[in-house]
Each structure stands twice: as structure tokens, then as C-alpha cells.
Design brief:
The chain has about 425 residues and is an alpha/beta fold. It folds into 2 domains: about 5-75 and about 85-150 and about 405-415, Enolase-like, domain 1; about 155-400, Enolase-like C-terminal domain (TIM Barrel, Alpha-Beta Barrel). The protein is about 35% helix and about 20% strand. The chain is built from 13 helices and 14 strands. It has helices at about 80-100, 110-120, 130-150, 150-155, 180-195, 220-235, 250-265, 280-285, 300-310, 320-325, 325-340, 350-360, 410-415, and strands at about 5-20, 25-40, 45-50, 60, 160-170, 200-205, 240-245, 270, 290-295, 315-320, 345, 365-370, 375, 395-400. The strands form 4 sheets. Strands 5, 6, 7, 8, 9, 12 and 14 form a 7-stranded mixed beta sheet that branches. It starts with a strand and ends with a helix. The mean pLDDT is about 90. The protein binds magnesium ion.
Length: about 425
């Protein structure tokens, strides 16, 4: 079998989120947006897909999100710049990756992954990010599953058919009644538990206000502690809690927050400091009992994860499909974690994350469901799918998709009628 072409199908949708300077998503009123479906075609008539968006957010009835309450950093980018960002990724896929992989055997994922990984080294290919690699790798796994008539998790060596989810909140904001205060977080965490979640992870304030005389990136560890305390009091002792906080604390603020989290019986502590600062993490880990998880955003794929484990920096490892270049490098990380006896938690939602969790023998305790915000509905079925990807039951479990490949059940009528 040979790859004959890569195509990108774009169709219309709407978006109710906007990214701040750092890249964190916040709620906004609906605005037009596009969804991309990457298709890898073969001479055997089998096609593999990667979908850029598996969920659709809606603003909850009666909620009006004022533009004026959005901080400086949440102003709209000029439409031209936004369009160029999308086009840049598509140009790389069609003009750099397509000529390399057309003619290759789509089942030789290791070969294709390593060819593309080696292309990342050159400065000429600076735009070839792990996120772009991930789209190709996921589509190849989807293709393999569709050809075999089996879900991807079974091809990797299945282990379970459902996983427990945690509610992963959006990053703190400036919206009263949103995520603007410890009280807001407490009310929202309680609501998530009422919906069935047995675990909640707070993303607290990342300080995106870069305007005026404000100290850029100025942290507020006391506000984080107050927030974590309010949430623990709201949900009681039986709900697992985790925190992913301001990512640039110094080691002393990180220690202060870590000690408070221990006292509040939080499960894990995520990215309190710059992840390349190995010495600071070693120091922090030597002083805390709470489990430190990472790295999440540090580059270097499975090699960086192995370094963290070998240097005893983390209690739990972290790997994300989009962060590392696809399912293939995360699968390598899972097996590395088994060798070290270190648990692994998968970063980010989506079909690929669910399949990986279903194929893990190292404990991956929770599927990251979200990001969630009190103003937004997360559970609506996107019109381009006939079946939701990560529907959760009343006990907080998400079923792993059982259709062949990644399990996408496309509504082709919608996709074809709304092509851009
Ligand atoms: Mg994180």
C-alpha cells in the first residue's frame, strides 16, 4: 500500500473561545471559525483522518460575555494574522510533508515519524512543529485502524474500555461569576462534581495582564492558595484535586504553594516553575511529599521525559499527543515509564488521548476533560460528528471510542455542505 495524497478539508463552525498572549483559552461570544480535517489517502482506497476540533463550545443560555471585561491580551488579533497562522501550518503540511511521504507505505509509521522528526532539526523547517507532526501521525494510526477494522487502542495493545475523567478548568480570568476569584472556582468545582466528575484540576491565574506599569508575569501565590483552599472546602475530602498554576514561580513561592497543597490533600502539583529548570525541580521535589507531575511543555519528546525520570525530578510523568508529535512518541513514553515504574498522565483531551490511556499498563488515572468554564457548555455534539468523542457518564467515566481507527463518526453531509 502507498500514500497517494494528503488533503486538508476545511469547513465552517463557530468558536466561543479566544486565546490570550500565552495561548490559554478563555470564553467569548460565538464568532465564525473553521475546522480542519486532514486526510491521508492511499492507493488501496483507505483514508486516515485527523480532526482539528472534536468538541464544540456553546455559551450557556442567558450568559453574555462582555468584550469590555476582557483583558488587554484578549483583544482580537487582526483577521489577516489569524488566517496566516492557519495557512502557515497547512502550507507546511502540503508543501514540505506531502512531497516526503507520498509514495511511502502508510503502515511504516516509525519510518515516517523519524523522517519528519529529522526534518525538524534544520532551521529551514522551523515551522515544522510537534503539533504538525502529531496531525500526520494520528491520521496514520487512524488509517491503520480503519484498514484493520479495529480501534487504535487494540492495535497498541488494549487494556481497558473506559477511563475516569477529571474536570480541567480554564485558566483564571477577570469575569465576575466566571473564574475571577476563589469563590468562583469553588462554585464551579462544586458544579462539576454535581455533573459526575470525581476529580477536578484547577488552572489558576497565569497573569495575562501585560499592560501599563504592571509587572509582567507577576505571580500571586497567596491567591492560588486561597483558591485551592476554597475549592477543597467546597467539594469535601472525597474528590481528588490537582492544580496547574502560574508556570513561572520561583522555587520559594513554588515551595510555599506546594506545602499548602499537601495540607489540603491535593493529588498532584503541575508546572509551578519553568520546566527546563531541572535544578529547581530537584530542589522542590526534595522538600515536598505531594506528587510532582511533568514535564508537559518542555520540548524533546520522550528523551526529555526519560531525563526527568532518570534525574528523579517527577513522581508522575506527562505526555501529550500534540506536545510530542503524535501517538507514536507518546506510546514510547508509556513504555519508558513502565521501565522506570513511574505513572504517566496524558495531557489534553481527544480521541488519541483516550486510545493511549486505554492501552497503558502504567497507571494513567485520569482523562483530562475540558477545558471547562462556567460560561460555556462542553457537551454539545459537534454538527460534523454523529457520535461524541468523549461523552462522560454520571459516574465520571468516559468510554473509549470503539469504531475502527480513532473512532470518528463523521457527518459528511454537514462537512460537505459547509466546506470553505
Ligand atoms: Mg498543564
Amino acid at each position: 500500500m502507498k500514500i497517494t495524497d494528503i488533503k486538508i478539508i476545511q469547513f465552517k463552525s463557530h468558536s466561543c473561545t479566544k486565546a490570550d498572549h500565552i495561548g490559554h483559552q478563555h470564553p467569548c461570544m460565538p464568532r465564525p471559525s473553521n475546522v480542519s480535517l486532514l486526510a491521508i489517502e492511499t492507493d488501496a482506497g483507505v483514508t486516515g483522518y485527523h480532526l482539528s476540533s472534536e468538541v464544540i463550545y456553546n455559551v450557556k443560555p442567558g450568559v453574555v460575555i462582555p468584550e469590555t471585561a476582557i483583558s488587554q491580551s484578549l483583544k482580537d488579533l487582526p483577521p489577516v494574522a489569524l488566517q496566516n497562522t492557519t495557512n502557515a501550518a497547512h502550507n507546511i503540511i502540503l508543501n514540505k510533508i506531502r512531497p516526503v511521504i507520498v509514495g511511502e507505505n502508510p503502515f511504516e509509521r516509525e519510518k515516517i515519524f523519524h523522517m519528519l522528526y529529522k526534518m525538524q532539526r534544520s532551521n529551514n523547517n522551523a515551522g515544522l512543529t510537534d503539533s504538525i507532526l502529531s496531525r500526520i501521525d494520528c491520521a496514520l494510526w487512524d488509517l491503520f485502524g480503519r484498514y484493520c477494522g479495529l480501534p487504535v487502542y487494540q492495535l497498541m495493545g488494549g487494556h481497558r474500555k473506559q477511563v475516569s475523567a477529571y474536570a480541567s478548568t480554564m485558566v483564571g480570568d477577570h469575569f465576575p461569576g466566571g473564574l475571577s476569584s476563589p469563590e468562583d472556582y469553588a462554585a464551579f468545582a462544586k458544579q462539576c462534581v454535581e455533573e459526575g466528575y470525581r476529580a477536578v484540576k484547577l488552572h489558576t491565574w497565569a497573569d495575562d495582564d501585560w499592560s501599563g506599569d504592571h509587572v509582567i508575569g507577576h505571580p500571586d501565590v497567596d491567591l492560588d492558595i486561597a483558591c485551592c483552599k476554597a475549592v477543597r472546602e467546597a467539594v469535601g475530602p472525597d474528590i481528588e484535586l490537582m492544580v496547574d498554576c502560574f508556570h513561572y514561580y520561583d522555587r520559594y513561592d513554588a515551595l510555599k504553594l506546594g506545602r499548602a497543597l499537601q495540607d489540603l490533600d491535593y493529588l498532584w502539583y503541575e508546572e509551578p516553575m519553568e520546566e527546563y529548570n531541572v535544578e529547581a525541580y530537584k530542589w522542590l521535589k526534595s522538600k515536598l511529599d505531594i506528587m510532582i507531575i511533568g514535564p508537559e511543555v518542555a520540548k524533546g519528546k520522550y528523551w526529555t521525559r526519560a531525563e526527568w525520570m532518570a534525574n528523579h525530578i517527577c513522581d508522575i510523568s506527562r505526555a501529550g499527543v500534540g506536545d510530542m508529535g503524535g501517538i507514536t512518541p507518546v506510546l514510547k513514553t508509556i513504555h519508558t515509564c513502565e521501565s522506570f515504574g513511574v505513572p504517566l498522565e496524558i495531557h489534553g483531551k481527544g480521541a488519541a488521548s483516550l486510545h493511549l490511556m486505554a492501552a497503558m499498563m502504567v497507571p494513567g488515572r485520569y482523562y483530562e476533560r475540558g477545558m471547562l468554564h462556567p460560561f460555556l457548555e462542553y457537551d454539545a455534539l459537534p454538527p460534523w460528528l454523529n457520535t461524541p468523542v468523549d461523552q462522560m457518564d454520571s459516574q465520571g467515566y468516559v468510554a473509549v471510542p470503539q469504531l475502527p481507527g480513532l473512532g470518528y463518526d463523521f457527518n459528511w453531509d454537514y462537512i460537505n455542505e459547509n466546506r470553505v
